[in-house]
Design brief:
alpha/beta, 398 residues, 2 domains, Rossmann fold, Sulfate adenylyltransferase, 13 helices, seven-stranded mixed β-sheet, five-stranded parallel β-sheet
């Protein structure tokens, strides 16, 4: 199996020993408490889950700026996006102390982790803008990632952490939330030597389904990991539990048995396009995947990135040999009326737009909200039924 990123073993920061966790929780009651924002809490879950191997905690200002501008920490480690604990307001947190990091997403704000504070630094307006321009390629407040980042605060609390909980993910998604080590273990149980990962934050339509099959078949891959984001999305996006149900139905009906693993991870969408695609590659390498599908406008939003920027960054900004995982470069997929199957549009140069069954995400959603199933060439009827049922129940009076 592929090695984790820059490590021989997963560096999950979750405290596995239940007795030690209980002791630490008790100790945390006497520590200064910091209520995290959703972004920092998601980072804690990812660090605890081992997906951010080999990191040991939150970056300081020097590393944050170095990663944003140069894609490397000051020590020279390649990393695409700063992993930060940013907070707002006045705090009495001091370097050299330990603090309890409290969960904003669970009632009662229980302790999520304990952080050993190495530094507390202030980010200036100029430094914030440098991070935004380099990571998101824009500082426009209309960009959802920019809007989220600028609302986090200016005080940067750096240092290693010990994670005591996976937040609501381990209870609300107990059957699908997995750590990097758990996925690796299941890959071994399945006897897969090679695995291609598909990142998704939406229900999967026919094009997504066939893209996974194309990648598996063309690369002669043993298995597919459908890795679903379970954290914070944009307003109006389909809830994770509905997406899980739709994807499971599709896999059960239309994939060979024992060829797919469905899993979820606790992170928020950043909408950082190319930079986020590289982070996704590191996350999937840590999960034991040999390949990752990077499609058109991967992790993008609006018109902020070119359609294939998330692919070309691996040629232009990722140093050769740094990552062991390989990228499967995909184009937009659609059902060909001529060939009577789903194809990548670049593989059908003789086709005109009318030769494809094309449906925008907006139009598909309008149809589903109206109780009208999209064409079967676009979406499996079983998937459409689950989504229409969700929209119908959403509109019922409470």
């Amino acid at each position: 199996m592929i090695y984790p990123y820059r490590a021989n073993a997963i560096n999950g920061l979750y405290v596995e020993d239940a007795n030690v966790r209980a002791t630490l929780r008790e100790q945390a009651q006497s520590l200064p408490a910091l209520l995290l924002n959703s972004s920092a809490a998601a980072n804690v879950v990812m660090l605890g889950s081992g997906y951010f191997t080999p990191l040991s905690g939150f970056m300081d200002k020097g590393d944050a700026l170095s990663v944003a501008q140069n894609l490397h920490t000051r020590s020279g480690m390649f990393w695409p996006i700063p992993i930060l604990n940013l907070t707002s307001g006045e705090h009495t947190i001091r370097a050299g102390s330990s603090i309890a990091l409290c969960d904003p997403n669970v009632d009662g704000a229980p302790v999520l982790a304990i952080q050993n504070v190495e530094s507390v630094e202030h980010l200036t307006d100029d430094e914030i803008e440098k991070i935004l321009i380099n990571v998101y390629r824009t500082a426009e407040s209309q960009h959802p990632g920019v809007a989220s980042f600028t609302a986090l605060g200016r005080q940067l609390v750096a240092g290693p952490i010990r994670v005591l909980s996976y937040s609501y993910f381990e209870t609300e998604f107990s059957d699908i939330f997995h750590t990097a080590s758990e996925i690796r273990n299941q890959i071994q149980v399945n006897g897969w030597a090679t695995v291609v990962a598909f990142q998704t934050r939406n229900p999967m339509h026919r094009g997504h389904e066939e893209l996974c099959k194309m990648a598996k078949n063309s690369l002669a891959i043993d298995g597919i990991l459908i890795h679903m984001l379970l954290g914070k999305l944009k307003s109006g996006d389909i809830p994770a539990k509905v997406r899980v149900a739709a994807i499971r139905e599709m896999v059960d009906k239309y994939f060979p048995k024992n060829s797919v693993m469905i899993s979820g991870y606790g992170f928020d969408m950043l909408y950082a396009g190319p930079r986020e695609a590289v982070l996704h590659a590191i996350v999937r390498q840590n999960a034991g995947c040999s390949h990752l599908i990077i499609g058109r406008d991967h992790a993008g939003v609006g018109q902020y990135y070119g359609p294939f920027d998330a692919q070309t960054i691996f040629d232009e900004e990722v140093p050769e040999g740094v990552l062991s995982i390989q990228i499967f470069r995909a184009d937009h997929t659609a059902y060909s009326k001529k060939l009577e199957r789903v194809v990548m549009m670049r593989d059908a140069p003789d086709h005109r737009s009318e030769d494809f069954v094309l449906l925008s995400g907006t139009r598909a959603r309008e149809m589903l909200e109206a109780g009208e199933p999209p064409p079967t060439e676009f979406m499996r009827p079983e998937v459409a039924s689950i989504l229409m049922d969700y929209y119908r129940k959403r509109e019922l009076p409470r």
